[in-house]
Specification:
three-stranded mixed beta sheet, 19% strand, elongated
């Protein structure tokens, strides 16, 4: 690590702490040449392979832009969107790969978005799952209804609800 003040090629780590919910490390360093201190922030890089073949760094902001469009006009807050983007980044990083396909990121968004808002989920899924007809929408709605009915037929303790 080069010293930002004197450009000396070595530095000594004085203190290390996790930052950004454990996704990066903040290190306090001291240059042995000029004795000045500086801070570095280290994080694991994650690249996104685009359809065009280009590669770019992962961006939570881009996840937010795509999801925000799907949630337009829906009762979803910015905090909800920020948490969704964080969950998506965590799940993508948990795969342990340094590069991930852009389509896989879209697919990783589907689960958390489904829990957040079903209408927004259908909007987003129509693009990432390649819906081509009304039957595709009907099938996705059928799955959502089946899952909702299954959830509603159990109470909070996980036992079947009594129906008259």
């Amino acid at each position: 690590m080069h010293c930002p003040f004197c450009r000396h090629t070595d530095s000594r780590v004085i203190d290390s702490r996790t930052a950004d919910d454990g996704s990066s490390i903040r290190r306090r360093r001291q240059c042995p040449e000029c004795n000045r201190r500086f801070t570095t922030l280290e994080s694991a890089s994650l690249s996104v392979a685009k359809r065009s073949g280009a590669s770019e760094p992962f961006s939570r902001a881009k996840v937010l832009v795509g999801v925000r469009k799907a949630c337009q006009g829906r009762p979803v807050t910015e905090d909800d969107l920020a948490l969704l983007a964080q969950r998506v980044e965590e799940s993508v990083r948990a795969q342990g790969s340094a590069e991930i396909d852009a389509h896989e990121i879209g697919m990783a968004i589907l689960g958390p978005l489904r829990e957040l808002d079903e209408v927004a989920y259908l909007r987003f899924a129509s693009v990432y799952q390649g819906f081509e007809s009304l039957e595709d929408f009907e099938a996705a709605i059928g799955v959502l209804r089946t899952e909702r009915d299954a959830r509603e037929s159990t109470d909070s303790a996980g036992t079947p609800a009594l129906t008259p």
